[in-house]
Amino acid sequence: MNRLINTPIDKAQETIDELYGDLQRRIAVSPKRSCPVDLAAAFLRICQCHTCGKCVPCRIGLKQLENLIDDVLEGRGTEDTLKLIQRTAEGIADSADCALGYEAAEMVLTGIKGFRDDYELHINGYDCVERHEKSIPCTEQCPAEVDIPGYIALVEEGRYADAVRLIRKDNPLPLTCALVCEHPCESKCRRNNLDYSVNIRGLKRTAVEEAGYVPIPKPYPPTDKSVAIVGGGPSGLTAAYYLSLMGHKVTIFEKRKKLGGMLQYGIPNYRLPKDMLEREIRTILSNGVEVKTEVSIGKDILMEELREKYDAVYVSIGAHGHKKLGIPGEDSPSVISAVQLLREVADDKSPDFRGKSIVVIGGGNVAMDAARTSIRLGASEVNIVYRRRKIDMTALADEIEGAIAEGCEVIELMAPISIEEDGKDKIRGAWFQPQIIGPIENRRAKPLNSKREPEFIPCDIVIVAVGQDIESKYFENCGISTKRGRIIVSESGEVCGEKGIFAVGDCVTGPSTVIKAIASGKVAAANIDSYFGYKHIIKNDVEIPPIKFKSSISWGRSNMYERSAKERVLDFNMVEKSLTLEEAKQILGKARKEKLPIVDDDFNLKGLITIKDIEMPSAFIPSRLG
Questions:
Q1: Three-state secondary structure call for residue 74
Q2: Which tens digits make up the pLDDT trace of 496-539?
Q3: What does the buried/exposed string (b/e) look like for 354-389 if buried means 16 or more CB atoms within 10 Å of the residue's CB?
Q4: Going by C-beta distance under 8 Å and a sequence separation of 6 or more, which residues neighbour residue 309?
Q5: Could you count the other beta carbons within 10 Å of the beta carbon of residue 474?
Q6: Is there a contact between 239 and 314 (Cβ–Cβ < 8 Å)?
Q7: What is the CA radius of gyration of the chain?
Q8: CA nearest 241: which of 258, 227, 225, 255?
């Protein structure tokens, strides 16, 4: 047996590990609009540092690839250079002895296919940075392009009402987003380069709660144009808000009793209190938006009537249907969809789950909402069964952790194969086929049949949460073009072959997030306004404070606390607590205004700008949505 020795600390390796940690952070938060060719060259150099140098493809080939990409960056490249880069990368990918070589080559090939236009810009004497300038990572990552640095600066000065006004310039549902937004902005926060992202969503909530009621801005003079909005969800409400500010007459047609769409009928009260949502909806409607609830298009009013009566129609029906499992026993009354459950609870028709065992099938946010709602309805046991691993779940990590904390169990790698009935409109449980994780496809591991014996999970109720569908059949019958249930539109959102009819959002893209639905409503409003021949700009006269240069001391992140699990499972009251003003001040102490260089045509530095100097468009086309 070899004697054990105390290995001394390798200071050099310790430092390298720290640098790798810094590098990982910087790569994760690198802005979208960095030069992709430059990044490809940088990644290639890192890969080259890792190679052992034993095989020719890595030792020589990667160096040659680096030289060729440098030629492109330095203006010496031609079309032949691109062809040579592609041939060289293909050769390395086919002949390298290990993944270090062929993965590096595959990365280059992916870039040649994915951003060839940027390579060609460099070859033709341009710098692709010219079309990627003025990038503020958090604002760019927000689908609605909200001025995040601006309203954070206003919150710091205690100007909460002004912060809300600035948010509403691009997002009329600030309170809703402060509670349920997936905050993609935080993933690209530049503060991640130093420690952790700024708690942007928490500061938005602070602004809204401290501001109280903030009236909407004064609208433009009335036009003679009218718009019918089919669907009163976040997209329809957003379009109604901006169109009414532009002076157009807006009428919302909503199928259900209340406006809000999935905000009202899909997100539980413990995440989004309905009194808060309804207060925000009333503010949106305060500019004279007309509302007609419990009106079903195709039953109570026809599409032809809307075409005749209104100058434009915006279809924003959302994704309120549910997908089925396609397995035996699924039609039992004891098998319900998560969408149906959440809708019944929102309509004050909650089922009695007291003492019952529940199985929830799915791994998204809707599955987590259904599971946590079941706990609050008195279920004695809730199992969340997913065919992939927990790490593969599409639900937010906080939602998964919240479900587990409240007593739900997550069972991984189990695919449903049948529901076992007892012949009396009840079920005994569900059968599942154990899975093993397989190859990675589209950056996600695919589950495969493990060939093990099926497993039985006893339960009283099965809740299905495997996706949502768009109820677009009526629109298809009206001649509106669809593909797999989704409405086909032009780049501007106008329905193909239907003049004056627009559709953006879930009915076009499929189920998405709240902030993307809001962004789509903003798109629709701007493009309908253009269709009418106007170019109204939603202005904001809020004076944003100047840049403050602050210390760059590393600091921990302040998160919003939650009520204890044993307390919150007893009711549907809000789980998440607001930041205290002291916590908000601590966050603001490390937040800094983004600054960007201004350059002339020869790329000589001229000065600095903040986001206030950047024209934030009130209209943009769907292709720019994430």
A1: coil
A2: 778 888 988 788 888 889 999 999 999 999 999 999 999 999 88
A3: eebbbbbbbbbbbbbbbbbbbbbbebebbbbbbbbe
A4: 226, 228
A5: 15
A6: yes
A7: 27
A8: 227
